[in-house]
Amino acid sequence: MTRKTVAIRGLDTGLYNEVFSMAKKDGKRVSDVVNSALKAFINGDLEEQNGVKSQPENVAAGSFILTIEDEGEASLSKNDILNISKDMGPFRIESSGDLIFEKDVDEEALRGIEKIVINSGSVSVPRKSYAQFLIKCQIKGKLEKY
What distance lies between CA 62 and its chain's CA centroid? Predict the structure, then answer.
């Protein structure tokens, strides 16, 4: 594919900078993210709201969301995360219950997770990977290290 520079008038620079930062953390290029979003738009993979198709806020096109509800509890190992991301692609976790990441969860496994949103409840993570979890987490609940 030929490389060509494309200027987009009216692009929100704050949004672009956030995408650039997130893409870099995930080892991707902004062009990869934009190409994926454009393909999802063309394929009609977005939800329709008020006659305009859009993806829920802060969710990448085609992204799978693993949800732990109130009073729910789950435990994820490295193998669990790798299998989910292999089947579903990079995914998000939203937790309002209790979530435990097993000690074998490392940086390789975390690459399969786009973001972890802790709405309430607690998420327990291995002490050795705590810094990597802080980068991935949006914390409204409790992030604990063990």
Answer: 11
Tokens of 142: 């409790």
pLDDT tens per residue, range 5-22 = 878 888 878 778 878 888
pTM of the predicted model as reported, rounded to 2 decimal places: 0.57
Helical (H) or strand (E) element with 44: none
pLDDT of residue 46: 57
Structural domains counted in the chain: 2
Nearest-angstrom CA–CA distance, 133 and 81: 14
One domain for residues 70 and 38: no
Q: Which two tokens stand for residue 22?
A: 């997130």
DSSP one-letter code for 58: T
Q: How far apart are CA 122 and CA 118, in angstroms?
A: 7
What 8-state DSSP symbol labels residue 56?
P
Check pLDDT > 90 for residue 3: no
Cα–Cα distance between 77 and 105 in angstroms, integer? 6
**Residue 55 φ then ψ, to 5°:** -100, 150
- Has residue 48 got a pLDDT over 70? no
- 95/117 same-domain check: yes
